[in-house]
Please model this.
Amino acid sequence: MSLADEIEWRPSPNYNARVVPEGERPIRHIILHYTGMEDGEAAVDWLCNPESGVSSHYLVHEDGRIIQMVEELDRAWHAGNSRWRGQTDLNSSSIGIEIQNPGHEWGYRPFPDVQMRQVLRLVATLCVRHRVDRADVTGHADIAPTRKQDPGELFDWPRLARHRIALARPEKLLADPGWTDAAFGLALERFGYDITNPEAATRAFQQHFRQNNPDGVVDGETRAVLFTLQVLEEQRLQAIGASTSSA
Model:
């Protein structure tokens, strides 16, 4: 059965038109969330409730069922006050995917394999359909570090990275560059994060890229992870540029 045939439609009234700058593609980001509620069906009901003021395009249940609530080309209300790589109003440029999990408030737990398989299939499909770069597949915490911590340190980013549809901690790290905390903050901002609250931004980065200990402290390992990611991304983008220019 194709993925499209598996998706259940539950329309939400909570959406509006995207605001797309001239010359830009309407969908350039994919943002992953956890529901942060005790029950998946209650989360769907809330996202479809006109009084909630929130929605997402998709929700993936723990048992692998996928619910679609907003058409992809419409603007769902999932990102809130957010920023990534200098861009705000991520609702207008993204597809939001809620992933059923009680979250840190209600008993955070690992994401089941059947659920992760469906998340992977969905994200891979959307990346191809909308030409979303792997670096722009993020978590809610990545784009709103002072407010959010989902999908959190138990989410299997490495699994998505192995399929080249997200970034994760590199397997081999370069040496600690020895940055000061201020220099680390500037590097983190260049990578994409809002560093208004440096500790929150560091913790969000760690929940994605140094998941074994997301304590918000800038240490040698955290600096090495960010430095390695920077170098690898520069190399990847240079390779893409070279391939494009020679085509």
About this structure: The mean pLDDT is 97.
